Amino acid sequence: MKRILSVILCITMILSLTSVAFAEHYSNFTDVNPDSWYYEDVDNAVRLGIINGKTETTFAPDDNLTYAEAIKLASCMYQLYKDGSVYLVPGKDPWYQIYVDYAKDHGIITENFFYKVSNINEKATRAG
């Protein structure tokens, strides 16, 4: 019995190690080093549908967030929290409109937001 238990324990340990070694990564960003402290967070955010990067291969971790990107993040995080998944998909013109509409409809931002922000594509500030 001890021998069988030992074999099962060894198999379990080996399988757990291989799952880490062959873990699927969801982000293909060439500017996010796998050794960087935020790599797993970025990868998880891509997997959950919260972010998708500037392009398919560029995340731009050193760029400032724009108001449009901040609204997208807030909308996607809220939808994930409320519905368990993110199904918002960016539009073509402008890409952020679906997120702005969602944020307004769900009370994340108000109509007054746009009186304070003259350009939704400018860098977001705390004073906003």
Radius of gyration: 20 Å
The main pleated sheet reads as: none
Order of helices and strands: HHHHH
C-alpha termini separation: 66 Å
Oligomeric state of shown chains: single chain
State the share of residues found in helices, binned by percent. Answer: 40-55%
Low-confidence stretches: 4-12, 14-22
Choose one word for the global shape: globular
In total, how many domains does the architecture comprise?
2
Taken as a percent bin, the fraction of beta residues is: under 5%
**Roughly what is the average pLDDT, rounded to an integer?**
80
Name the structural class.
Answer: mainly alpha
What is the number of E strands?
0
| Total count of helical runs of at least 4 residues | 5
Q: How is this structure best described in words?
A:
It is a single chain. This protein is an all-alpha fold and 128 residues long. It has 2 domains: 63 residues, no CATH class; 65 residues, no CATH class. The chain is built from 5 helices and no strands. Helix 3 packs across helix 4. The longest helix has 20 residues. The radius of gyration is 20 Å and the shape is globular. The N and C termini lie far apart (66 Å). The relative contact order is 0.11.
